[in-house]
């Protein structure tokens, strides 16, 4: 790991990160940064990720962190995951949910023709699983008072992004679960939030049709540019630390300012140039566009 400034923000804390697959994963970067900030951690993913990802390498980078196999869409798996966590690590101060999957996106089904079994799976794996993690963490008395629960979201929870398909619905559910749990967990000083991250080149991210174009558009629309997975992890450290102990039930945008922008000068100029060049306009399907009267 490169030598970077660290602040001991998580010194003495323990936690678990669900969803690191390889170095590109947001969860991977969060795990590495949490360890560097002084936390003892465990990492978790589905069995297939152990075969196709680099979980052992991550474990070694994080002080031989225990690796716990768990499908977050299965009650029994989640239950035994927290039992194993308590045995191997003890009670924890943070849980990170960095999980997402849509079979409908993988197979590129149009939104109007979604496979409903897959739709339910998307909602279950990418949204409901956060509820399940918190529920079983409570049942197993794994969370310390004042703990921080963090999940990763995307702005498609609130706005339409055509190719994000049923993942937009899953992210709305995820953010709603955060709000529903907030006051219930607050009784023990436990916080729960989402970070809404820029498009990021990861296995899940780059599986979205047209991801490269979405990434470029978002970059052009963000005054500070798209945020990387490493930058997301750096921000996440503050959310997991005591520095944010009164922040709960929030969807925290980490997107270079994208979510507050209406338009940027380059995007306006670009649109104008395209609309006034017949050949270019035709190439992007805008040959019939006429400004509204
Ligand atoms: N990449 C982006 O552009 C972007 C932007 C905003 C938010 N996010 C969110 O960040 C989170 C992490 O995704 P990522 O981009 O790092 O991609 P990633 O592919 O590296 O991570 C997704 C992880 O989810 C795991 N997973 C899938 N099904 C699971 C299940 N049933 N149980 C447990 N784990 C399961 C996968 O094995 C994988 O490790 C996701 O919630 C994603 O929606 C990503």
UniProtKB/TrEMBL annotation:
Its EC number is 1.3.1.9. Pathway: Lipid metabolism; fatty acid biosynthesis. Keywords: Fatty acid biosynthesis, Fatty acid metabolism, Lipid biosynthesis, Lipid metabolism, NAD, Oxidoreductase. It catalyses: a 2,3-saturated acyl-[ACP] + NAD(+) = a (2E)-enoyl-[ACP] + NADH + H(+). Pfam families: adh_short_C2. The keyword NAD applies. The keyword Iron does not apply. PANTHER family: ENOYL-[ACYL-CARRIER-PROTEIN] REDUCTASE (PTHR43159), ENOYL-[ACYL-CARRIER-PROTEIN] REDUCTASE [NADH], CHLOROPLASTIC (PTHR43159:SF2). Belongs to the short-chain dehydrogenases/reductases (SDR) family. FabI subfamily. This is Enoyl-[acyl-carrier-protein] reductase [NADH]. It comes from Chlorobium phaeovibrioides.
């Amino acid at each position: 790991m490169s030598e970077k400034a660290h602040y001991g923000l998580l010194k003495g804390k323990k936690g678990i990160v669900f969803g690191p697959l390889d170095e590109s994963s947001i969860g991977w970067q969060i795990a590495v940064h949490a360890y560097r900030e002084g936390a003892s951690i465990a990492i978790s993913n589905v069995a297939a990720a152990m075969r196709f990802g680099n979980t052992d390498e991550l474990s070694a980078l994080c002080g031989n962190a225990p690796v716990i196999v768990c499908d977050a869409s299965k009650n029994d798996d989640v239950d035994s995951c927290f039992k194993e966590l308590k045995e191997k690590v003890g009670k924890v101060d943070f849980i990170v949910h960095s999980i997402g999957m849509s079979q409908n996106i993988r197979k590129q089904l149009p939104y109007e023709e979604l496979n409903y079994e897959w739709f339910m799976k998307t909602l279950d794996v990418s949204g409901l699983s956060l509820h399940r993690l918190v529920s079983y963490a409570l049942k197993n008395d794994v969370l310390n008072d004042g703990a921080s629960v963090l999940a990763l979201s995307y702005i498609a929870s609130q706005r339409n992004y055509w190719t994000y398909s049923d993942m937009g619905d899953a992210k709305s559910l995820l953010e709603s679960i955060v709000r529903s749990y907030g006051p219930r967990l607050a009784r023990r000083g436990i916080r729960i939030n989402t970070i809404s991250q820029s498009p990021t080149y990861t296995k899940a991210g780059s599986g979205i049709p047209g991801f490269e174009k979405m990434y470029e558009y978002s970059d052009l629309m963000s005054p500070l540019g798209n945020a990387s997975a490493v930058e997301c992890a750096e921000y996440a450290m503050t959310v997991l630390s005591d520095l944010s102990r009164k922040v709960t039930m929030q969807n925290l945008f980490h997107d270079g300012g994208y979510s507050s922008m209406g338009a940027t000068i380059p995007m306006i100029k670009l649109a104008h140039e395209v609309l006034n060049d017949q050949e270019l306009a035709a190439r992007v399907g805008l040959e019939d566009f006429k400004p509204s009267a």
